[in-house]
Amino acid sequence: MSEVDVWAPLGRAGRIPVRDELSVTDLLTMPRATPYAHRCDLDVAGHRVDLSWHHRELVASLASADGPREIVRATAESGSGPGGIVWEFTVMPALVLGLRVDVQRQRSGLDRWSLAVHGPGGRTWQWRPEGRILADRLDLTRAGEKAAVVTHELRPVPGRSRSDTGPPHVAWQESASLAEVLLPVMWVLDRAYSGLLPKQQRIVQFDFL
C-alpha cells in the first residue's frame, strides 16, 4: 500500500452522509471492555475509512488490499475549565499517525463554546457551532482563515427547515486534508458537541440531534 499523506489537500471538495450504526442507547450501555463496535464507513475523496470503537477508543482505519491501516485513534476524556461544573462536557484528543492533536474548550460568545485545536507541525484550528439561535452545523476553521475548511451538518433543528432530513453530513473544501475531515466526524460520533452547543439546545439535544 502506498503511503497516504493524511495532511495533504484532498484536491476536491465533497459532501457525504455520516450514518452511525451505533445508537445512543447502545453507546451508553456498551461495556468499556467491548473489544469492537462498528460506527460508520466513509468514502472521503476516494479514501475508504472505517470508524469503530476498540475498547472505547475511537479508531479510524484506512482500507487497502493489505488490510486496514490505523490512521487516527482518539479517546474521550472529561473536559476542564470554565463551565465544567455546571455543564459537564467531554473533549477528545487524538493521535494522528502517532502525533498528538490536543483540544481545549473555550468560550465563544455569551452562550456558546468552541474547541481550540492544536495539531502537529504548528497546525491550529477552531471547531465551533454555527446557527442563528440553535446550531445546525459545526465548523472546523484554520487559524487565520474565515471560511470553514470542514463543516459537519447536524440533523434539522426546530425553526430551521432543511429539505434533507436524512442523516448528518460532513462537507469539506478541496484544500481540506483527510485528517481534517476525520477529526470532526470522530468528535461528533463521540458526542463531543454536547459541550459546544448553546445551553438551551444542550438541554433538549436528544430530541433532535
Q: Could you please describe the fold and organization of this structure?
A:
The radius of gyration is 16 Å and the shape is globular. The longest helix has 12 residues, at 178-189. With 209 residues, the chain is mainly beta. The model is unreliable at 205-209 (pLDDT under 50). The protein is 11% helix and 36% strand.
Summarize the structure.
The protein has 209 residues and is mostly beta strands. The chain is built from three helices and 14 strands. Mean pLDDT is 85; it is low at 205-209.
Task: Describe the secondary-structure layout.
Blueprint: E1 14-17, H1 24-29, E2 37-44, E3 47-54, E4 57-62, E5 69-74, E6 77-78, E7 90-91, E8 94-96, E9 99-107, E10 113-118, E11 124-130, E12 137-142, E13 150-153, E14 169-172, H2 178-189, H3 199-203
Antiparallel strand pairs: 1-14, 2-3, 3-4, 4-5, 5-8, 6-7, 8-9, 9-10, 10-11, 11-12, 12-13, 13-14
Query: Which overall shape is indicated by the principal axes computed on the Cα atoms?
Result: globular
Strands side by side in the biggest sheet: 1-14-13-12-11-10-9-8-5-4-3-2
Radius of gyration: 16 Å
Mean pLDDT comes to 85
Share in β-strands: 35-45%
Through-space gap between termini: 38 Å
* Model regions low in confidence, pLDDT < 50 over at least 5 residues: 205-209
Query: What letter string, H or E per element, gives the SSE order?
Result: EHEEEEEEEEEEEEEHH
Secondary structure: helix percent: 10-25%
* Secondary-structure-derived class: mainly beta
Largest sheet: 12 strands, antiparallel
Put simply, the count of helices is 3
